[in-house]
Design brief:
The complex is a heterodimer of chains A (about 250) and B (about 500). Chain A is mainly alpha-helical. Chain A has eleven helices and three strands; from the N terminus they run ααααααααββαααβ. Chain B has 20 helices and eight strands.
Chain lengths: ~250, ~500
C-alpha cells in the first residue's frame, strides 16, 4: 500500500539493472546476508502480518487460503515475491507472473522473515560461467517439454502455463528449479548444471532470429495463421488486381 | 509493317457482310484494281518474316500449328476467382524451383555426425547428416535460408490457395457434368499437396518434425491387420528408424512431384478440352465462353500474376521466420518439445487425434488402437465425402444435366450449406490441433478447450449448415445481379403529393 510510486521506481530500477548488467553486484547475496539480521527479520514480520498473514497464518504456519511457509526457505519467498506472483489480492486467485508488489528492501525483509520460520533452501548463487552446449542439452532434456525448445512457454494442462522464459534472470531460474513452483517439478541440478542452463536461457533471450520476425516462436500454429490470414488474402488481392475487366471476347465450345 | 502480320492472321476481323477484312489476297486484288502499286508491294510481301520462317520450319516437322493456334485462342472468362487455380500452379512452379535449389545441399541421411557450424549451442552436438545439412543451408549457403523460407512459406500458402480454388469450384457447382472427372483429379492434387507438405516437413529431422513423423507412424500402425506392414513400408521398421528419411526424400522430391505434375497436365488439359465454365453475366450462355483470348490477353494477366505470386511468397520468406530448426534442435527420440504441431494444413488431423476420446475396443480379438478412428477413419470419411461430392450431389438433387454456366453460391442452398459445414468442421478440427497454444493465448485450461472443441465439432457444422441454408434461401428472394432492372426505379409525384413508381 505505502509508497507505491517509490516501489514502482525501485522496481523499474532493479528490473533495468537485471536486464542490462548481469555483472552488477548480486542483490541476492545481500538478501541472504540480510536473513541473518534480526532487525531485518522483525521488519519482515511486520510486513508479513500486514500483507501475508491473512492466508498464510499469523506465524506463517498456514491458514485457510494459503500453505504453511515453515521450511519454505529464502529461495521460495524470494522467487514468489520478486516475480510478483505473491501476494495475491484474494485467496484462490491464479498465481501469475507480474511486476513485484514490494520494493527490494521490503522483499529482503520478508525473505528474511520466511527463512527464519524454519530451515529451507537458500537463494542460489547462479554463476555466470555456464557452458552453452551443456546448457542446451540440459534444457532440451528437462525444460523443453513444457517451456518449448525456444523458451516461448506453453499451456501444459490443468490451467497451468509454463511461462515464457524471455525475461527470466539466472537467480529466478535457479530458484524455480529448486522449489518447483506450480506444476513445475523440483530439480536437483548441481551448481555447474544450473549455470549452464541459465547461460543457455540467456542465449535464447538475446539470440538473433535469423530469417525475420520470430512470430512468437511457437511454431506452425503462428506460421499457419500468418499463411492463411495474411498470405492467402494477399494472393486474393493480387488476383483481384490481375483480373481487371478488359473487353470480353467470345468462343463457342 | 512486317511484325503484325503473324498476329493479324490469327484474328480475322469480319466486315458487316461477313467478308474477312484483313484477307491479304482480297486486299491485293482490291489494290491491283485501284492501280495502287505501293499498296500492292506492301500487301503482297512475298518474303516471310524471320518468325514465320522459324514457326513454318517447326510446323512442317511437328504439325503443331493447329494445336498452338487453338491454345493461343482459348478464351478465359474474366473473374478473379478463376485465377486461384493459376496461383496454385504458380506456387507449384516456385516450389519446384526453390526445392531444386534445396536438393543441391540437402543430405537425406540419418547417419550421425558432429555439428561444427556457427550456431553456438549446437557446437559439438551429435546430429543427423540431414539436420546438419539443413543447418548448413540456413547459415552457410548463400541465400540458403531465404530459399528454405520461401519454399516453406510457398508450401503454406499453396495449400491455402488450393483450398480456396476448390471452394470456388465447389460453391459455384463447376464440378457438375461434364466436369466430374476433373473434380476427382483436382481432389487428387489436394491429396498430393498434403502428402508433399507432410513429407517435406519431416525431412529436416529436427525435434518438431521428428515428433510429427512419430505421430504419422502411430496413425499408420493403428490400421487393423495391415497397419504394421504399411508403417514398415513407409518407415522401414519400428520408429525411430534411420530408413524413413531417404524414403520420405524420394517421395518428396520424385514420386509426389511427378504425380502432381502429371495430374496438373490432366487437370489443365481437361479445362482446355471442355472449355471454362463461366458466371451467368453479360453475353455468357451455356454454349459459348465469354472472356479474354490466351494470346494476347490472358497470357499477360497470367504472366503478371506469376510475378505477383512470387512477390508475395518472397515477401513472407524474406521477412517472416518459418521453422527455425536450430532453435528446436535435432530429433532425439526421448525428447519432445511443447507445443508440437504439424503445418496448418495437417492440423485438422492432429486436432482430430487431440480431442477424440481415448477409445481402444477389441473386436473379434483384434485391438483397434485409439489412433485408428480419429487418425484414419474420420479423415477417410471426410475426404471421401469431398472426393465423391459431384456424385453425392447428383444423387441428392437428381440434376444430371450438363452445366457450363455456374451457379451463384446461394442458388443451391443444400450445396452451399453442406460445403460451409464441412469447412466449419475442418476449421474446428484445425483449431483443436492448436489447443495448447490457444490455451496459453486465451488463458483457458486445455481441458476446458478440449471439451469445448468436442462440443463444437458436432454443433458448429450443424449451426453453420442451418445458418447458411437460411441465408441462401433469403438471398434467393432477391433477383440475381444480372436480372436486376437497370438504373433503378423511377418515382413520380402524383396529384395528392405522394410518390408512385413510374411505368
Amino acid at each position: 500500500m505505502a509508497g507505491l510510486a517509490a516501489l514502482g521506481a525501485a522496481l523499474l530500477a532493479t528490473g533495468v539493472a537485471w536486464a542490462v548488467s548481469p555483472a552488477a553486484p548480486d542483490p541476492q547475496a545481500a538478501t541472504n546476508a540480510a536473513a541473518a539480521d534480526q532487525t531485518v527479520v522483525d521488519a519482515g514480520r511486520g510486513l508479513f502480518t500486514a500483507n501475508c498473514a491473512a492466508c498464510h497464518g499469523p506465524a506463517g504456519q498456514g491458514g485457510s487460503g494459503g500453505p504453511s511457509l515453515v521450511g519454505a526457505g529464502a529461495a521460495s519467498a524470494d522467487f514468489y515475491l520478486r516475480t510478483g506472483r505473491m501476494p495475491l489480492s484474494a485467496p484462490g486467485q491464479r498465481v501469475v507472473r507480474q511486476p513485484a508488489h514490494f520494493d527490494d528492501a521490503e522483499i529482503q525483509a520478508l525473505v528474511a522473515y520466511v527463512a527464519s520460520l524454519g530451515s529451507g533452501p537458500a537463494i542460489p548463487q547462479v554463476s555466470s560461467g555456464g557452458e552453452l552446449h551443456q546448457g542446451w542439452q540440459l534444457f532440451q532434456a528437462n525444460c523443453a517439454a513444457c517451456h518449448n525448445a525456444t523458451g516461448a512457454g506453453n499451456a501444459i494442462g490443468g490451467g497451468y502455463v509454463a511461462v515464457g522464459l524471455g525475461n527470466a534472470d539466472p537467480t529466478t531460474i535457479g530458484e524455480a528449479t529448486i522449489i518447483g513452483p506450480g506444476a513445475m517439478p523440483a530439480f536437483a541440478f548441481d551448481d555447474q548444471s544450473l549455470a549452464d542452463i541459465a547461460a543457455y536461457i540467456r542465449f535464447l533471450q538475446d539470440a538473433p532470429t535469423p530469417g525475420g520476425a520470430p512470430i512468437g516462436q511457437v511454431g506452425p500454429v503462428a506460421e499457419g495463421f500468418i499463411g492463411v490470414a495474411i498470405g492467402l488474402p494477399l494472393l486474393i488481392l493480387v488476383s483481384l488486381l490481375a483480373a481487371r475487366r478488359g473487353k470480353p471476347e467470345e468462343q463457342n465450345p | 509493317m512486317k511484325a503484325p502480320r503473324f498476329g493479324r492472321r490469327e484474328r480475322p476481323v469480319v466486315d458487316p457482310i461477313g467478308r474477312p477484312l484483313n484477307d491479304p489476297a482480297r486486299e491485293l486484288r482490291d489494290a491491283e484494281a485501284r492501280g495502287d502499286a505501293s499498296a500492292v508491294d506492301v500487301i503482297a510481301d512475298p518474303e516471310p518474316t524471320e518468325l514465320e520462317r522459324i514457326t513454318g520450319w517447326l510446323d512442317e516437322r511437328t504439325g503443331l500449328a493447329g494445336l498452338v493456334r487453338t491454345t493461343l485462342r482459348k478464351v478465359f472468362p474474366d473473374h478473379w476467382s478463376f485465377l486461384l487455380g493459376e496461383i496454385a500452379l504458380f506456387c507449384f512452379i516456385i516450389l519446384v524451383a526453390t526445392g531444386t535449389f534445396l536438393t543441391f545441399f540437402f543430405v537425406p541421411s540419418a547417419s550421425q555426425t558432429t555439428y561444427a557450424g556457427p550456431y553456438p549451442p549446437l557446437q559439438g552436438a551429435t546430429v543427423s547428416e540431414a539436420y546438419n545439412s539443413v543447418l548448413r543451408l540456413s547459415f552457410d549457403v548463400k541465400a540458403g535460408l531465404l530459399m528454405r523460407q520461401v519454399h516453406h512459406w510457398t508450401a503454406v500458402v499453396f495449400v491455402a490457395v488450393i483450398v480456396a480454388h476448390l471452394s470456388r469450384v465447389f460453391f459455384t457447382g463447376a464440378f457438375r457434368r461434364p466436369r466430374e472427372i476433373n473434380w476427382l483429379i483436382g481432389f487428387g492434387l489436394l491429396t498430393f499437396a498434403l502428402a508433399e507438405g507432410f513429407t517435406g516437413y519431416s525431412l529436416p529431422d529436427d525435434l518438431l518434425s521428428g515428433t510429427g513423423a512419430r505421430i504419422a507412424y502411430s496413425a499408420a500402425i493403428s490400421i487393423p491387420l495391415i497397419g504394421p506392414y504399411v508403417a514398415s513400408l513407409l518407415f522401414g521398421g519400428e520408429f525411430p528408424t534411420a530408413a524413413f528419411l531417404p524414403r520420405f526424400f524420394v517421395l518428396h522430391v520424385m514420386l509426389l512431384p511427378a504425380l502432381f505434375a502429371g495430374a496438373i497436365v490432366a487437370h489443365v488439359g481437361l479445362v482446355f478440352l471442355q472449355k471454362h465454365t463461366q458466371f451467368r453475366v453479360g453475353r455468357a450462355r451455356e454454349d459459348n465462353v465469354v472472356g479474354r483470348h490466351f494470346w494476347p490477353g490472358q497470357a499477360f494477366v497470367s504472366g503478371g500474376l506469376f510475378f505477383l505470386t512470387a512477390a508475395v511468397v518472397a515477401l513472407l520468406g524474406g521477412l517472416v521466420q518459418i521453422n527455425p530448426i536450430w532453435a528446436y534442435g535435432p530429433f532425439d527420440a526421448p525428447i519432445v518439445s511443447s507445443p508440437a504441431q504439424p503445418d496448418w494444413y495437417v492440423g485438422w488431423l492432429d486436432g482430430s487425434l487431440r480431442i477424440f476420446p481415448p477409445f481402444e475396443p477389441v473386436i473379434l480379438g483384434i485391438t483397434i488402437p485409439s489412433a485408428f478412428v480419429p487418425g484414419v477413419v474420420i479423415p477417410g470419411i471426410l475426404f471421401t465425402i469431398v472426393g465423391i461430392w459431384p456424385f453425392i450431389e447428383r444423387r441428392v438433387t437428381g440434376d444430371r444435366a450438363p452445366h457450363n454456366l455456374l451457379d451463384w453460391p446461394w442458388e443451391s442452398p443444400f450445396r452451399a450449406a453442406t460445403g460451409a459445414a464441412i469447412l466449419g468442421l475442418f476449421a474446428i478440427l484445425t483449431l483443436a490441433g492448436g489447443n495448447d497454444v490457444l490455451s496459453a493465448f486465451l488463458d483457458l485450461p486445455i481441458e476446458s478447450l478440449t471439451w469445448l472443441f468436442r462440443f463444437l465439432v458436432l454443433a458448429f457444422p450443424i449451426a453453420v449448415w442451418l445458418v447458411v441454408y437460411a441465408l441462401c434461401r433469403s438471398r434467393q428472394r432477391y433477383p440475381a445481379p444480372d436480372e436486376r432492372p437497370k438504373g433503378g426505379i423511377r418515382l413520380v409525384r402524383n396529384a395528392t403529393g405522394g410518390w408512385e413508381e413510374a411505368e
